[in-house]
């Protein structure tokens, strides 16, 4: 209710300024233990989630407010993407609201304060409850991006509930080439070795803009490397019909227009993995019904981000309460029982 009154004023601001204000407000919130465990509790990759709804990477790039996000009702928070060295990202403007389409286009370019600052910040929350994943990336000008991911895995493993290897951003030139079969195998071997045998599970975040052969290859490698989960998917470089004047901006498209593509890709990965690999559904989720559809299609967990710009911070509790209602309506005793049941 309050957010609906504030939104017109926030939408007068540059999107990046508005996002900065959101982070500032969350920094003022007391960090709680996150939502209580209830009927939506589920386990994925050996981790216990109080509910299956997470905030996707990109909102809290530097790991500044994970506990505040958990206090909003999210079952887990994924911070990052974080790179070894600080980088400014791409020139502004680089973030665009497509209000008519309930969408966002971004070409941020992994802007963050780097690993050293993130380690210092995230080390201070060690011992607190809550699932906090760390999304890791490579510097744009790195001569060896695989070495960057290995460095990040080594640094972040002691601080993360899980590591999310992000090779699917369209805003770092050449990054998506790491989804190719041989490069992906080399990358994951390096990450797993750097993480250590006792390290947290490794999730892999993939793009929605994949061919069927790519899906099959990635699924096979993910199972072979015993990844904790696949995150399906990131933003898209495709452009479905859009109404906004910003429709022609370059970058990754997220929000409502991504929903159907992300759902189709999730179903493909569910088929390709035969249900052997947990999937995290993300892309265009804005309501409990969207999240439930993704779970029924094969997602063990779901994430959102762009929808929070339009619905406000209350979206987490709204989606979670709706999920519990839908689970009971359809006669399931748990989220795990509903996964892939469509």
How would you summarize the topology of this molecule?
Layout: H1 2-10, H2 15-27, E1 42-44, E2 47-49, E3 53-55, H3 66-71, E4 76-82, E5 95-98, E6 103-106, H4 115-123, E7 131-136, H5 145-156, E8 162-166, H6 181-195, E9 202-206, H7 212-224, E10 229-232, E11 252-255, H8 259-273, E12 279-282, H9 288-296, E13 301-304, H10 306-311, H11 315-329, H12 335-338
Parallel strand pairs: 3-4, 3-13, 4-7, 7-8, 8-9, 9-10, 10-12, 12-13
Antiparallel strand pairs: 1-2, 5-6, 6-11
CATH topology: TIM Barrel
Output the radius of gyration: 18 Å
CA-CA gap between termini = 34 Å
Walk across the major sheet and give the strand order.
3-4-7-8-9-10-12-13
Low-confidence stretches: none
Instruction: Specify the CATH homologous superfamily.
Output: Aldolase class I
Highest CATH level, the class: Alpha Beta
Alpha plus pi helix count? 12
When the domains are counted, the total is 1
The level of helicity is 25-40%
Strand content: 15-25%
Please outline the major beta sheet. 8 strands, parallel, barrel
Derived structural class: alpha/beta
Shape, principal axes of CA atoms = globular
Overall mean pLDDT stands at: 95
Give the SSE string.
Answer: HHEEEHEEEHEHEHEHEEHEHEHHH
Work out the number of β strands. 13
CATH architecture: Alpha-Beta Barrel
